[in-house]
What does this fold into?
Amino acid sequence: MSGKRIDVILPVPLTVIFSVMKKDKVVEIEEAVVRFAGDSGDGMQLTGSLFSDSTAFAGNDFATFPDFPSEIRAPQGTVSGVSGFQIHFGHKNIYTTGDLADVLVAMNPASLIANMKWAKNDAIIIVNSDEFTEKNLEKAGYKENPLENNSLSGHLLVQVPLSTLTYEAVKELDLDNKSVMKSKNMFALGIIYYLFNRDYTKTFAFFESKFKKNPLIVEANKKVLTAGYNFAETLEVFKNTFRIEKAELEKGRYRNVTGNQATAWGLMAAAERSGRNLFLGSYPITPATDILQELAKHKQFTCITQQAEDEIAGIVSTIGASYAGSMAVTTTSGPGLSLKSEAIGLAIMTELPMVIVDVQRGGPSTGLPTKSEQSDLMQALYGRNGDAPCIVIAATSATDAFYSAYEAAKLAMEHMTPVILLTDGSIGNGSEVFKIIKTSDLPAINPPIVEANDPEYKPYKRDPETLARRWAIPGTAGLRHRLGGLEKEDITGNVSHDPLNHEKMVKLRQEKVERVANYISDLKVDGADDADLLVVGWGSTYGVLMTAVEEMQAEGKSISLAQFKHIMPMPKNTLEVLSKFKRILVCENNMGQFVSYLRMQFPELRYEQYNKVQGLPFMVSELKQKFESLLNE
Amino acid sequence: MEQKIEPKAITLSKEDFGSDQMVKWCPGCGDHAILRSVENVFPKVGEELGYKKEDFVVVSGIGCSSRFPYYMNTYGIHGIHGRPAPLAMGIKLANPKLSVWLISGDGDSMAIGGNHFIHIARRNPDINYLMFNNKIYGLTKGQYSPTTPKGQKTKTSPQGSFEAPFNPGELVIGARGKFFARALDSNPKLMQDVFLAAALHHGASIVEILQNCVIFNNKIHALITNKETKDDNQIVLEAGKPMLFGKEKNKGLKLDGTKLKVVKLGEDGVTLDDILVHDPTTEDAGIHMMLSAMAPPEFPAAFGVIRAVEGETLEDAVWNSVEHEKEVSPYKTMDDLMNSGNTWEID
It folds into this structure.
């Protein structure tokens, strides 16, 4: 460590330096994207989440996304060990986690080289210059030091000897080297707090509760955070700082939720409203495990979670619990959904309610476990033996995961059939601002449970409207019956190999699912219902498609968006909506699974497609470029 | 919270469980006798443990044995191949007040469902697991199973099986299972005793039933069941009783060093005091493992309850935790949870 050296090198023209030297002024902006990047052990996720909390406190709307490697601790200093956290916040409604960063914090060379592609051309880049040693540059794959060869010109490069300054800040505390280095992320956070005029009292309160047992660490974190803030202020690093007005959010109480948390909460809310106990049978799999972990915490709501020996046991125990009267759920990701296929068939055959949550990731096979994709759609719709229809719905955002999970459970129980809920890594791990609701404001859930000794009860006798059979729960007198994977006779439920009965039952199961269309919301169009171009998306792409379409509408372009949440069945007005547009562009993060489905359902229409399969969400900029090119043809 | 139901006056009969469905097993199949024994034992289970007829649930996997739920007038599910264990566990966890019976075969439990089999033994939910072992795949018409003896010719082992078989009892005990018993399809009295013992044991009670497949593996258990040899090749174990067998009950099992040995009373100075006394309740699995592994011709095959060790059941542990969390958790409703932690107001 070089000791006292405190220098800030700004490779920018002299005129800019002069303006920097003037008293900082506060510039009002609409929105910003900040990306924190560092080694897996640098605490970037915590830094990001503390900044998110302060963003909430400042009253902005925001969305966040963590970008971590699939290795837990890859070799230190290498690109594969880089962990990132991006936050997009603003005065207006925030639908995405942001394309490119206005501010990038890079704690070492590897995080800089891995994240430069996510920085805007004129981004502020804050680096820990202490880490730019020959050895670290080599580990990151740099041939030359990027801080010295002008390769970052155009950006506002702020070189901060973060490690040295962190030592300086806490030198009078008697701390070991490791603890000191652990707090250097707070120096970076202090700089960012200054840059966005943030209040750090909430963060101090967090330190006090998190490190309750170690007052020295509380003190160190406070000192380092303050030092970072004061450093930025005193040395006038930035020519100005930024302020973002409070967002125009609806009045009410808010909190931050990740999509996986929202999914778990939506399921618990459905269990509470339906008066059923929640049962979850699940096997850990990235990126779905958080749902199992969240539900496991809440036994007080009679939420029974069973970590199974494998994916199959996870869903089969779910079928058992559903038979026994629980609101039953299994959670997984793509490879796990493959393993569950046969059991989903049993759930369809026995007509038992359950929710199967698939938090999609990059496939096929192990694929990209920590990256996001929408490529399990066909598997969800058709990945079973036999004609085996089930309801498929897709959450459109992290907060919508709450409502989608609730609706999935409601539809499953009221229509007595499994429901596959598709979310994905970007929804599951992403976080958004969530308006807290009262569970009593959610629609009621009325499962068709049979009363004891009902003389009318027959296992496969159906409700004339929904075609749902009724739920006769073991332990109830007078309703003993057998279910199973063998085909059953209509009404009686006796085993039957009769050809005509089989065909009738196949059709009944199909129609039961199709009639769900009578119980879901219509397809909505954002924008004119006869614009020159209709953008169609489904599930998690809503935020980014909406942002791109709204921006182009503001530029006067004739463009609209229809986002699907209900996939099987689709809303009843789908054809009516789609047929009003001359051009339909279906955008999705797979090779074209939804567009193929649309072509199959409504072959009379013509569809174009735009696909991105990189394990990454669309960017607003690339979407707009695509839309422009179509509109200009 | 103790999930065991307090016995109350319940009178049930065999007729309460008989089904109106046609039983479609082959004539002469051992499954018929097992079905009758189960029908006979359910009323006793109801009386002993306070289960009403609607409290019984019979689940199964796939195979000849697994048609069983359709032939009982109870709640039941015929599941998918190899997965009756998680199916039963889901039911028992969701509602511990049910008497859950699992019917499976050697293919279902030892091959495709082997993973679930060892895990249910380890987890110990209070279910009764009846595994019919005929050492062959019957429903697919005669392929070798994981319990088929090495060297046996079947449709898929025309030169004789190359594989060493599993012994189900060793698997149960090796997986730290707490209950293992063995019964025989040709001995209804033994079956009923064993099934009742399984029901009364609070935990995962796994019972292997040596069952004869009259079509594809006839007389596979002949050495044990033949009139001429059965007395020397069977030992029925009873808790607290010396391990004696043979027509004259003059043969017994003795511990010779670390191994079991068959001895004859009166020969070489052997007296009743030398004979091992059966203790199914000891945690130590050593003798239980050896008893499970015994097979003719060197040893008699062991029947009856070989191991029955008390222990907390899965559902008791889970539901006790639910009750505890209900008391201590600050969240009584989802509204409480949603409003907890870091929230903020927008006016």
Q: What stands out?
A: Chain B touches chain A through 59 residues (CB under 8 Å). Residues 14-241+278-324 of chain B form a domain with the Rossmann fold fold (CATH 3.40.50.970). Chain B has a mean pLDDT of 95. The first helix of chain B runs from residue 31 to 49.
